[in-house]
What we know:
conserved putative lor/sdh protein from methanococcus maripaludis s2 fold, 3 domains, 36% helix, Elongation Factor Tu (Ef-tu), domain 3
Amino acid sequence: MNYERKVDVMDSLAGTQSFYEDADNSRRKRTFLIVALVLIALALVATWYAFTQSKGAADVEGQGAAAMPNVTVVIPGRVSVEAAISANGTIAARREMPVGVAGEGGQVVRVLVEPGQWVGAGQTLAVIDRSVQAQQAASLAASIRVAQADANLAQAELERAQALVGRGFISKADMDRKRATRDAANARVRVAQAQYGEATARNNRLNIVAPAAGLILTRQVEPGQIVGAGSGILFRMARGGEMEMLAQMAEADLARVQIGTRATVTPVGTTTQIAGQVWQKSPVINMDTRQGTVRIAVPYSDALRPGGFADARLIAGTAEAPLLPESAVQSGPEGNYVLIVDGKNMIKRQPVKVGEVTDNGVSIASGLTGNERVVALAGAFLNPGDKVKPVVQKSSQ
C-alpha cells in the first residue's frame, strides 16, 4: 500500500518536471523570435534611414547647384589712365590793379562805374570837383595872352628900330635893349604856357581813371566823399579780366606739377568746368602745413568770383592701372572694395584704393593686378563665401 502511493507521488513529480521543462523551452523560443524580429526591424530602419539620407543629400546637392546665381564678372586688365591731382584753393585776379587818387584830390562829384563792369584804358571812373582849379587854369590861360601881347609889342618895336638903324637915329645899344625886351617877353609867354599846362595836367589828374583795360572788381567811393592822397584804394580792377586759382597741394603732388600742366577748375556751388593751365608754382613750402601754392591761369567767366573757393583737377601724366565700371566699386566703413570670384567660384572681398574717375570707369590705384574676375553688377546682393556661376564679359576700355 505504501509502495503504490510512493510510486504515484514519483510519477506525479516526474510529470510536473516535464511540464516545466516544456514551458521553459517555449519561452526561450518566443524570446529568440522576438529578439530576431527586433533585430530585423532595426536593420530595416537603418537601411531605410541610410537610403533616405543619401537621397536627401543628393537632392540638396542638386537643388544647391540649381540655385547658384549667374554673376557677371569682368577681367579689367591694365589700361593707360591719366594721372590726375586734385586740389582746392581760392579764386583771385591774376593781375589785380588797385586804383586810388593820383592828384591832389577833392570832393567826388560822380562815380561812373560799378563792380563787374568792363572799362578801357584811361576811362574815367570817378569825377572830382574842379571848380576852383578851373578858375586857376582860366587865370593862367589869360596870363598867356597878356604875355603874348607883350611879346608882340616888343617884336614890333624891335622891327621899327631896325628900320631906323641905317639912318643913324637908333644906336646899337638901343637895339640890344629892344632885342632883350623882345626875348624876355617871349620867355614870359613860355612861362605862362608852362604854368597853364601844369594846371591843366593837375586838373586832369583830379579824375580817377583806369590805368589799363580790365574788369572792375570793387568800388570804395561814393559821390560827395572827400578823397585825397591818403584815401587808399578806391577801386580794384582785374587787368584784362584775367583770373587765376591759387591751388594748395601737398609737397609730393607739387613735385609732379610742371609749368604748363593742364587743369580743370570748378567753382564751388557750380558745375561749370573752366579749362586753365599752371603758369607759376611756389618755390617754397609752408613749414606748418607742408603745402605749396600752384597758380592756375583761367580765362574770365561769370562763375568765377575773386575770393571764392574752387576745386581743381590737374593732369600730371599717364599711368597703367586696372579700369572698372563704377558699379563694381563699393564702399564700406573700412574704405573701398570690390568683390572677386576665386578659383572655386566663391565670392571674395578685396580692398582697393580708387584712383582716377573717368567717363570710361574707375581706375584702381592699388589692390588689383588686373587679372582677377571682378563682380561687375549686383555686388550689393552677394556676400563673401557665396558660390556663383561667373559669366565673363569684356571690360570696357
